[in-house]
Amino acid sequence: MKFGHFDDAHREYVIDTPRTPLPWINYLGSEDFFSLVSNTGGGYSFYRDARLRRITRYRYNNSPLDMDGHRIYINDGGTIWNPGWQPTKTELDSYSCRHGLGYTILTGEKNGIRAQQELFVPRGDACEIDRLTLENKTDAPRTLDVFSYVEFCLWDAMDDSSNFQRNFSTGEVEVVGSAIYHKTEYRERRDHYAVFWANTPVTSFDTSRDAFCGVYGGPAEPEAVKAGHCSNSVAHGWAPVGAHHFHLTLEAGETKTILFGLGYIENPVAEKFTAPGVINKARAEAMIARYATDAQVDEARKALAAHWDDLLSALQLDSGDEKLDRMVNLWHQYQCMVTFNMSRSASYYESGIGRGMGFRDSCQDLLGFVHMIPERARSRILDIAATQFEDGSAYHQYQPLTKKGNRDVGTGFNDDPLWLIAGTAAYLRETGDYSILDESVAFDNDESKAQPLMEHLRRSFNFTRTHLGPHGLPLIGRADWNDCLNLNCFSEHPGESFQITGPSEGPVAESVFIAGMFVKYGEEYADLCGHRGLPDEAADARAAIAQVEQAALTAGWDGAWFRRAYDAFGKPVGSKECDEGQIFIEPQGMCVMAGIGKETGQAEQALKSVEERLDTKYGVVLLQPAYTTYRLNLGEISSYPPGYKENAGIFCHNNPWISCAETVLGHGDRAFEVYKKTCPAYIEDISDIHRTEPYVYSQMVAGKDAPTFGEAKNSWLTGTAAWTFFNVSQYILGVQPTLDGLKIDPCIPHTLPGFTVTRRYRGAVYHIRVENPAAVQKGVKRVTVNGKTIEGNVLPLAPAGETVEVTVVMG
Questions:
Q1: How many domains does the chain have?
Q2: Which residue out of 383, 391, 483, 669 is catalytically annotated?
Q3: Range with the lowest mean pLDDT among 270-274, 613-617, 802-806?
Q4: Structural domain of 276
Q5: Which of 278, 309, 340 is the last residue of a domain?
Q6: The Glycosyl hydrolase 94 catalytic domain covers which part of the protein (predicted)?
Q7: Nearest CA-CA partner of 178 in 245, 237, 240
Q8: Any bridge partners for residue 262, and if so which?
Q9: Is residue 309 annotated as a catalytic residue, yes or no?
Q10: Does residue 586 fall inside a structural domain?
Q11: CA angle, corner 584, sides to 628 and 698, nearest 5?
């Protein structure tokens, strides 16, 4: 069942009913100011940091769902409704939501009045613009009372949701004309404030929630909207809001627009006040003036569209498969950019309070966006590296404003260091910019301990190399990629616990998954050493890699698949010796991607075991059989009911590892089959089962052991976005940046006769045509560049500004 449709011509997803299975959202903003907006106008806004600069409130885990947001109310002679249906839920005569690239358009019609709410964040400004267009489609004049409404958060979202005894006394506003200034705590230590404005003179206003909604009221039935006017309240403490009221008459057939803006302003301390307690509004007034007319807003929308045109032009596909093309060309790259901006911090599943930026997460996200914005990828790498510790480990997560996170001794996630190599290597393959390796980067943001980025990578590599366990496999620490596989934190005996603080202190768990990572990304590190003129270091690194690879082939092999790990007591995890959790997805994907067992047949057998034991109609589950009881020696993974999250759910993030691994072995049919099972465009028809947005990836889907098999959760902010784009663009389509140029090595279903890719690479544009006359899955027979046949399949680097015509014949 579908609740909307793709409009490829306008690059939008059009939602036809407000009653979607869950709120289906979009992200507005691409620099510092961000808003989340749902298909009914719910959502919230923040500046840079979703915790420390939260501008509007949002109540998670609330019922009714999605009440807070960017609200417009229309009182038409006592009939009260919203253009997006929520929160009044008045039945509309027609409704649509168009989610596009950085904008959303909600359109509702009721009793001959059409209201369109267009929301976007302009480039270069810290504000959200909402354009309301009202049209009287009848043949008689109509008088309406129109209201806007946002509820301000008191900046720190954690404090706002918990410290009521203080916050109920700190709310402050100023009202100047149609501008409402939210200056709570500005007098104390803040240098910032928010402003919610309209370009039309107000009839009345409210800044107190109690006055607008009623003390026992709420957004669904605000007292002011029912009364037809606001009370000009000025908030002193309690809950400050912004609400405008306009009493309008529309002649027959007339259209009127009102422009609203929600802006963030930061003043230097010297400019905080123009008089005691009166904020300096000069920057806000300048912002308001930039969006005072429809013509100005139109120009801002054009600039936003041009921005996305440029980003998406870095890679465009024409395959003849409209679903594949729409994902690769539009929605997939769009989601990769959103995950770049957000990491995992702010969604309808992440509150923006706890996680901040992820070290591993942000490094993986680089794989999906580096081709679009290499200069910002460069900055992100340096930013991430500066949170690393001198021993090579890192904060697992950190707040973007403070660059600090939580880290207890002995509780590191031991895969984190290797992801820095993965992200940096991806940047270097894309750009050839080796100067980044010479950039001085602090450790733990302490400039006195700064070292070149190359030294950070060296310590990442050596951290794993020096943290090996009794089987010669890397130590897992708190966990590896699977945050819930906690093998060092609990005793197998009830009532006992221990915490590992070093490689020689007590029982120590090992990870076969990190072994696969060390082989794959260690080899990429060795390649960098070679290109940096460090042949001895490269050789030394490869010797260490070979030892771990051998451990993976012996201690890590279970007979028909790779084991997952060894727990703190030396017992195998992910083995036929186990009663449950006998096979895991992660080491099969990562080890085969690394080439472990490719020559000995073990890689082939591992992927056969995945297909036989883990595959389902909705994707590959994380493990089987599911854990039915809690296991102290395994930790959080067994705390989930069977089929959910890490306990045998379909973790969409690592499904592309299996698809990538299949291409390593030349299995194009199987790789594409795995790709399609979790790809949104291919599963749009089961939106009633899937429930999350049909235009973006989700983190997980309930596995076959769950009562809700096929239901997704945690949409938008997931490493699935980057990894699946990496898979389809570089492993399946085979357009692979290398340190020496673009390599073309497709691995496609044999039924695909060919495709064309336009790829921007190091300043040149490559038009690549792939032909598959023999209907093979993998193999390149001939490559011609500008009409001349070349040796091999790595394209010669072209000068910036040049256009290159490439033909690749498979066979």
A1: 2
A2: 483
A3: 270-274
A4: 4-309
A5: 309
A6: 307-734
A7: 245
A8: 128, 196
A9: no
A10: no
A11: 85
